[in-house]
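Predict both folds.
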Amino acid sequence: MPNDLVYIIMDSCRFDSYRRAKTPNMDRLGKGESRFSYASWTAPSHHSIFLGQVAHKAPKKVLASEVYKQEYALWMDRIGVPDLSFKSFVPELSLAKVLRTNGFRTNARVSMPVLNPMTGFNKFFDSYKLMMDHNDFKGMVDEITFSADQPSYHFLNLGETHYPYMLKDEQLPRISGVHGVIKGMDAAIQRSDDMGRVDKTFFTKPEMVALHEQQIRCVEYVDGVLDALISKAPKGTHFIIAADHGECFGEGDYFGHGPVMHRKVFEVPFLEGKKR
């Protein structure tokens, strides 16, 4: 029987946030590497992910079509289903469809409203849910079940690493200054003087640094919750942990992602491996 698949997207997590974080549970699954997203914001990036594509390595002197074909073939080893290829995904080009066709129960839990069930991303999923709380990876883990009789696919989009990178105080060590920065974020974006003129300094450099540090700690929080999911998963479950895009924290005078053309917005972590 094919093995279970857990696909986790840490929304907006840039590669160096993952690299700087302490991630003992992710390390148990595999070694993370720097790859690149197909898009700079959540919706189009998830469209490519749901097609069955994963973050790419930006290879040179190759035909894009060959990269796609080779990537689709890797799903054979990931899920233990023989003879998968690009043709297996045609015409729907849906990973969930391919998995359901091969006997998987398909489940998705998402945090971002742009991925809500009304958008159509839920197609070919037996269960698809937008979480009520922006930061509820723990709630997702509590809901996940595995069956000895049927392989399952669990896709999880996590909001913890997304702006404003804020968890409940009791769940995250308090960092001096950071909480005040985040609570006053809207004011920081639109600072104005007594004449109503907007201050073009935007965030200060220390504020950008503090926000980046907060994302790093959110990655560490996610890693802590991951321990329970690994424990719950059957032996042989294949895990993929990545991001849909990165984030800018002041590089090139940019903040955030979306209409931002900067390497840090496209560079993402990627790791995969099976539970031993």
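Second protein follows, with its predicted structure tokens after the sequence.
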Amino acid sequence: MGNPFQDQLLKAGLVNKKQVKKAQHEKRASRQQNKGTLPEIATNKAREEQEAQARRNKELNRQRLEEKRQREQQAQVKQLIEDNRLARDERGEPYNFVEENKIKRIFVSAEMAEQLSRGQLAIVKLAAAYEVVPAKVARQIVQRDPEAVAAFHEGPP
């Protein structure tokens, strides 16, 4: 029979051969049933892990694309400022403006100071320096990076 415990029960007369065969059959059937569910559980778990990995990859790709977009916008802002900045007069009159609750000062000609106060020109920040650009360019910069514009007295459109 193969099972010493079943052999002992059979010899003792507590069970007959039919009952032993039935018990073996049930044991074999339950093993077959469990074999079917174990791979299914493993497959479900593997599928869940793949879905989780796909979600993580999608989020990382979204973050990379967002960072790339921000770098491109920063490059566009820098290009706009460098291409359109106006020459300042370092011996001209000081023009004061507020940035981050601090009063900053640049020197511009009297004509530029008047245009700044009327909203025809704007002051933008490029790296650690300040540059003066036309209002049209300042509006383009505001669309890409509002924090790059330090002073722009734009009236209602």
